[in-house]
Amino acid sequence: MTVREKLPEPVAELRPRQTTDGPTLYLARHGETLWNREGRLQGRLDSPLTSHGKDQARRAGMTLAALIDEPGYFSLVCSPLGRAYHSMELIASELGLDPKACRIDRRLKEMSWGRWDGLTHWEIEDNFSQALDQREADPWRFAPPGGESYAMVAARLRPFLEEAVGHGRLIIIAHGIVSQILRGLYGRLMPDDIVRLPEPQDAVFRLEQGTVAAFAAEAA
């Protein structure tokens, strides 16, 4: 098994603006980073957004602006990691929101890869082949040396999601695996399905009325 990212599945075309008065959550992943481009796992470490990643974040903001009638009724919440925070600033600018009002929630940190943080996919394949076999056998419960499993991340995200739904209207900026798990928990998916969800950096997701909808954040 390899740990190279799969290509994201196609996402939906832009749909009509939000009309419900019920709880609505929007979810975006940070834009492309230097380490994304190099094929390095980031986890709890960080690297700067590329110019393409900055553009992705701006387009995510434009897409959200097209979907939300009154962004001022929504609150921003973000991972404390720099790549997510910078993306949030760019998204907030497109929505006319104050990034300083964004709430930072440590539960939204990306899954820690432990000793794999900062390594390329190829380095992991060369040096941890047995561990990769274990990951393939049970991707939900497998934790890299010194790192977290999907199950461990889900345990910290469940209370966050319950609070978010109770809040009503949030725009969440986080990470690939965090996004997978939040969407999966909200949609009541099985663990085997959650780990296979796409992790696009050019889309936003709406969690509303028990369903998850995807919207492409395409260039104009």
Describe the structure.
By secondary structure, the protein is of the alpha/beta class. The protein has one domain (24-216): Phosphoglycerate mutase-like (Rossmann fold, 3-Layer(aba) Sandwich). The chain has eight helices and six strands. Strand 2, helix 3 (82-95) and strand 3 form a beta-alpha-beta unit. Helix 2 (51-67) packs across helix 3.
Q: How is this structure best summarized?
A:
The chain has 8 helices and 6 strands. The protein has 220 residues and is an alpha/beta fold. Mean pLDDT is 91; it is low at 1-19.
Which helices and strands, and how do they pair?
Elements: E1 24-29, H1 34-38, H2 51-67, E2 75-78, H3 82-95, E3 103-104, H4 121-127, H5 129-137, H6 150-167, E4 169-174, H7 176-186, H8 191-194, E5 203-208, E6 211-216
Helix pairs in contact: 2-3, 6-7
